[in-house]
Amino acid sequence: MAPTRPSLQQILRVYALVCVVVFAVTRLESLAIVGPYIHLAVAAVFLLTAIRLTRGDAAHYGVALGGLLEPADDVRPVGPLGLFDLGRAIRKALPSAVRELGVAIGIGAVVFPLYALGFYWWNEPTGNFLLALPPNIASFVLAQLVVIALTEEAFFRGYLQTALSDLTKRRRRVFGVDLALGAWVLQAALFAGVHFMVEPHPARLAVFFPALLFGWTRAWRGGIGAALTLHAMSNLYSEILARSWL
Q: What is the pLDDT of residue 99?
């Protein structure tokens, strides 16, 4: 029996509810006791919502990540705290992860130089480029990958884009990839919308454009692996440009 797909009203209702929760959580950022954990709370909202809504059909929604987020079907002992099971899942997902990393690097090699030109044109830096990496770069990269990219891609490109695409059979080819154009554009607009809601500044709407790239990547690869890697790489690249040029 084919799983029931959500209607447009249901999809938008989920998005609206997530926005309300995210907005409420981010209003607590000024409180010293919870402020440092706000990003984790927002990440949990995105990820748990995506997992809940894609349960049982993770591959269709592109959030299986090589089996990492799918229910284990191994009958062997899971080990203390499930560590054996986790190790087997990571080993199973590793080949897919390497492939998607390569794809993300390839896309970045094309897009990042163009972004650097746009960054220079928009910001008009007056000084020379002096390479400056974020402090604690390992922690920064891990946070971008797990807390930001994974959670946002799971919800926006995994659940939202897929659910919206399921509403129509019409596809258009964009740079060699078949896309439901309305779903592709709408998920990017919704992505920009939640960023603007949290921080109401026109510049926050600019995330609409990378969201199109991430959505295109998700459609091409059939999953969010390359998209989330590219997302994290993009955030790191943008941070380095800002620190090195501004």
A: 93
Dihedral in degrees, nearest 10, Cα atoms 148, 204, 22, 47 = -30
CB–CB of 229/209 below 8 Å? no
99 DSSP 8-state letter = H
From CA 232, how far away is CA 229, in angstroms rounded? 5
Task: Reply yes or no on whether the pLDDT at 89 is more than 80.
Answer: no
Average pLDDT for 41-50: 96
| Structure tokens that stand for 51 in this block | 């997992």
| Token reading at 65 | 């990540």
Q: Residue 36 has what DSSP assignment?
A: G
3-class SS of residue 45 = helix
Torsion of CA 182, 183, 188, 193, to 10 degrees: 90
- As a whole number of angstroms, the distance between CA 151 and CA 166 comes to 21
CA–CA distance from 148 to each of 109, 120, 145 (Å)?
A: 22, 25, 6
Which tokens sit at 53? 């809504």
Q: How many CB atoms lie within 10 A of CB 157?
A: 30
Question: In the block, which residue shows the tokens 């990219």?
Answer: 149
